[in-house]
Amino acid sequence: MSKLRLIIRREYLAKVRNKSFVVMTFLSPVLMVAMIVLITYLTKVNDSEVQIVSVLNESRYFHKEFLPSESVSFIEFKNINIVEAKDSTISLAYNGLLHIPETMTVQEAAEEAFLYTRDSPSNTILNRLESIFKNRLRKSRLRDIGVSDEDFARVEERFELQTATFDGERNLKGVNELKAFIGGGFGYLIMMFIIIYGGFVMRSVIEEKTSRIIEVIISSVKPFQLMLGKIIGNSLAGVTQFAIWIFSASILLFVALLLFDIDIRALGGNPMMDTGNMGAISEFPQNGGQMQEYANELFKIPWLLLLFSFVVYFILGYLIYSSIYAAIGAAVDNETDTQQFIFPIILPLMLAIYVGFFSVFSNPHGPIAIGFSLFPLTSPIVMLMRLPGGIGEGGVPVWQLLLSIVLLILTFLAIVWLASKIYRVGILMYGKKPTYKELYKWLKY
Amino acid sequence: MTPILVADNVSKSFGEHKALSNVSIEIPKNCIYGLLGPNGAGKTTLIRIINQITFPDTGHVYFDGKPLSPKHVATIGYLPEERGLYKSMKVGEQALYLAQLKGLSKNDAKTRLKYWFERLEIGDWWNKKIQELSKGMAQKIQFIVTVLHQPKLLIFDEPFSGFDPINANKIKDEILELKKNGTSIIFSTHRMESVEELCEYIALIHKSEKILDGKLSAIKKVYKSNVFKVGLQLEGNINGLIQKLEDRYEMLDHDFDSEENQLNFTFKLPTASTADVLIDLGKEANVVHFEETIPSANDIFIQAVKSKEI
User: Fold this and answer.
1) CA atoms of B309 and B305, how far apart (whole Å)
2) What is the pTM of this model?
3) B88 interface with A at CB cutoff 8 Å
4) How far is residue B201's CA from residue B214's CA, in Å, rounded to a whole number?
5) How far apart are CA A192 and CA A186, in angstroms?
6) Section B251-260 average pLDDT
7) Does residue B11 carry a pLDDT above 90?
8) CB contact at 8 A, A264 and A257
9) What residues pair up with B266 in beta bridges, in sequence order?
10) In whole angstroms, what is the distance from residue B68 CA to residue B6 CA?
């Protein structure tokens, strides 16, 4: 047992002292926050620029329609011809010239209107102009069939369906998505962790092979002990790194927000550690009462259950995948040979994320969501996306949760057993890249 | 005295490939035992079985009379042929780590390391990384790590590769010193001159089978073929002498040095008794030298392997 501790300690220190690891640990939060700040800043700058379109309107229509908006404003030319209008638009460096020729009807005027720009027009301008025309045309047609402007305004009323559960509890729109998003955040965290730190385990195995120290070590300890020590040591290093990231990124983000006076709500779908709260909040309407209700919903999420299952799924999922990574590292001689073996392990992870985001979001308890949350290679991610809905009635049935954990544990035992066999043989094989067939043979040595 | 290690009918296959078939060897205590054989013969597999890195399909291994078990790991030291150290780890830390894996306490390991560092003139490399060291220096550290926990049985697989002649000699002296202090040593190599120099016992493994083993001196007796090297100082003329000798003996080759008037030749006698032959030769000329040629380990190696292949 104390040998295992020694190995874990060495692996941990070797990883933590590694220069690139240290640099990554302290640079990543800075880079991440800098990127967020930059994006927000650029978006702001971009949005605050007002584009100007000159209008040469020779028809009788549309004269009161061109009202300035946040991003587009209009300047009307009068008593000049189209050529002069074009010249002055260019010389004044406006963003475009809208020409409406003289016509008999509003319909014709709209059809013959032309927008001239230096190159292809921006979407902001196009959308604005098109909506102006659309509105005006609709109004005139309604007036033709006898609907007044006031009536039209009244018809325009927005409508949203109110929903409630059978218990009479009011439902909030998007709460399912919100919950899946929080679960998805945890699932995503697991995936990132597996890919990054599984890779560390693999590289560390390859390093032992290439430096030829492996045979010295396994004459003192069992290969399985070494593999386990490696996996645990590297994951502890990973947890350390994640903790530093989350801690320093939160501080940096907070400082940056204060310094640059950036509205938190302006931050869109945000870095992984905060997907839960921030991403969700910004997606929904922001008036006070509803905010409160969303907050209530957030409190209703079974956080304890969620955290507990996160730990269970995280540990089991990580152990399964990283022992596969260790086996791959043992099977090959250098990192370039790993590609063919890595793809099949990344595949279920990606599948889990995509299935999760597409299928679980829309229906957390549909057959696909259930299937993938039971299948052991995807369940750590997909089940976590379903769990924020709670367990038992209205949530994930208890049997599904238990079955999925039992399946995961069985798979874990099987995979670790297989991986340690491949590992044991692979670490002593030098000089060639094995095929899948050979790997199968190794299981029987 | 119970042998330090006994392998009893050990077999091991990897899939179709048979790596060892029914190999039995006995390694006496406090000797240097040469494990010889061409590449791919199965030496490394046998060594790995002794180190419990792999396990035999059939057969048993006994360490000091008891079945080999995981606790014996601490009493065996192994220097593999494919060897290395963590490149980016510091020398001292690494040596401590490997010693602790062998079951030494940290303090013991430190004192012993200091002793060995001085002894092999490694000096103040404690805080240097392995990648900053020369290959020979790294090999020395590897050697120290192997012997640090004072194992009862040491296994060296090609120990001299990577050393310059001076350091190779130093390591050889250390191996002899360890033997003097009671350690049993298994020595696997292709370098026959070091076998000749160091080993008292040898075993020859070829194509997964043991084809020869025993005390080196005894094996040599078996393999010697009564071939003698003779030098005759002639007083008179060479004429007819060669013919005379060829009539009487099975001559292998001869060479006449006309300046010195000396005839050198080798011949093979039907028996090992030489008294009559010497008298006979003494009648013809002065016998300058008369010496039996004993086969070298290299000759035995080649001969044994060849005879197996026919």
Assistant:
1) 6
2) 0.74
3) yes
4) 6
5) 10
6) 85
7) yes
8) yes
9) B229, B253
10) 10
By residue range, what is the domain housing residue A333?
2-42+174-442
Check CB contact of B115 with chain A, cutoff 8 Å: no
Sorted by where each starts, the structural domains of chain B and their CATH numbers stand as 5-221 (3.40.50.300), 225-293 (3.30.70)
d(CA B192, CA B181): 25
For residue A439, the SS3 value is helix
Q: What is the ipTM of this complex?
A: 0.81
Chain A: give the shortest CA distance to residue B78, in Å: 7
SS3 B260: coil
Contact: A211, B142; criterion CB under 8 Å: no
Q: Which of A213, A220, A428 has the CB atom closest to B73's CB atom?
A: A220
Partner B contacted by A20 (CB < 8 A) = no
Please indicate, yes or no, whether residues A30 and A92 belong to a single structural domain of this protein.
Answer: no
Are residues A149 and A256 both part of a single domain? no
Residues of chain B in contact with residue A430, where contact means CB-CB under 8 angstroms, are 82
Q: Is A19 on the interface with B (CB under 8 A)?
A: no
Residue A401 lies in a domain: yes
10 Å CB burial of residue B226 (0-12, 13-18, 19+) is middle
For B37-61, the three-class secondary structure string (H helix, E strand, C coil) is CCCCCCHHHHHHHHCCCCCCCEEEE
Among the listed ranges A97-106, A144-153, A350-359, B257-266, which one has the minimum average pLDDT value? A144-153
Kindly state whether residues A273 and A378 are assigned to the same domain: yes
Phi, psi at B8, each rounded to 5°: -120, 105
Contact with chain A for residue B176, Cβ under 8 A: no
Do the Cβ atoms of B142 and A444 come within 8 Å?
A: no
- How high is the pLDDT of residue A173? 59
End-to-end CA distance of chain B: 38
Contact between residue B34 and residue B187 where contact means Cβ atoms under 8 Å apart: yes
Contacts of B53 in chain A (CB under 8 A): 215, 218-219, 223, 428
- With CA atoms as reference, report the closest residue to B27 among B179, B201, B219, B217: B201
Mark yes or no for CB contact B73/A441 under 8 Å: no
* A221 CA: distance to closest CA in chain B (Å): 7
Q: Contacts of residue A444 in chain B, CB cutoff 8 Å? A: 15
Amino acid identity at B85: L
**Rounded-to-integer distance, Cα A97 and Cα A82, Å:** 9
Residue A332 lies in a domain: yes
pLDDT tens per residue, range B178-229: 999 999 999 998 778 888 888 999 999 988 899 888 898 888 888 888 888 9
Q: Does A213 touch chain B (CB under 8 A)?
A: yes
Output the six-digit token pair for A225: 């002990």
Mean pLDDT taken over chain A? 80
Please, what is the Cα angle at B286 between B284 and B288, to 5 degrees?
A: 135
Q: What is the DSSP string of A272-303?
A: GGGIIIIIHHHHS---HHHHHHHHHHHHHS-H
B142 at the A interface (CB within 8 A)? yes
